[in-house]
Amino acid sequence: MTGMAPTEPSRWKDKPPPARAWKGREGRSREALAAEQDRAASGRHRRMVDLGDGRFARASIELKVLPKTRRIRAYLRWSDKGRSPAEYVGEVAHETRGANLAQAWEMARDAGLLAEEPPPERSWATSPAVRSVMRGNRSRDTKPEIRLRSLLHRAGLRYRVGIRPLPQLRRTADVVFPKARVAVFVDGCFWHGCPEHHRPATKNIDFWREKIEGNRKRDAETDSLLRQAGWTVIRVWEHDDPVDAANRVIAVLRPERATVERPDLQTMPT
């Protein structure tokens, strides 16, 4: 790999660049740092470097300030067998860290420092973008599920998680109230074909159309079978407001208390 030359002179001639231009907030979790890199690179799948021999690694951009010149330099870093190689990308000079990271990723891509990891053999995902979406759609303990469960628990409700409402039916609900016979499903927009956010695939169009449509039919069949057995079914989209979703559940289980207080966002699980 080869680095890039600076694209423009430093804009901070008389004083160092502000911390917001290059230094991230202290105390952030690894997940938050990874999400920041994902946003800047326009997707988790766009952060790959080719290690050779069919191996790939996910990279990150590191920003450093040169004290003498007051320039912000960007480096591409990754891990390889216990080592942490770095490749100089170039200089950036925006006012915010996010903008500088985004420019650095573009520079690294233009310089040919990044690669796209091919999908595994027999993989349904025909592109890194599709594969990234699939990986991001976990089947259990997603953020929308955890937030909903937290609100229901605060409201004094007790439930079971990830079980079959009907043991003989191979269908699992996300939140289940066995005594009340209420089954709650938190549906991901990608897999369940959200009418607001689902976007048709541009590759393997027939396969993905049949896949999503099959999921929709299965959802409708599940609802019908549960209702026939005396269950109340509540479906929540992952994009729904968690407080509104919790109130829907509470309205069914405790009609006399059909609302839950909106918590401070800082106390909500992330």
UniProtKB/TrEMBL annotation:
Does the record bear Nuclease in its keywords?
yes
The record's keywords, sorted A to Z, are: DNA damage, DNA repair, Endonuclease, Hydrolase, Nuclease
State the Gene Ontology terms under molecular function. Answer: endonuclease activity; hydrolase activity
One example of a Gene Ontology biological process annotation: mismatch repair
Task: Fetch the InterPro entries from UniProt.
Answer: DNA_mismatch_endonuc_vsr, Restrct_endonuc-II-like
Q: Which domain of life is it from?
A: Bacteria
Question: Could you tell me what this protein is called?
Answer: Very short patch repair endonuclease
Recorded source organism is Streptomyces alanosinicus
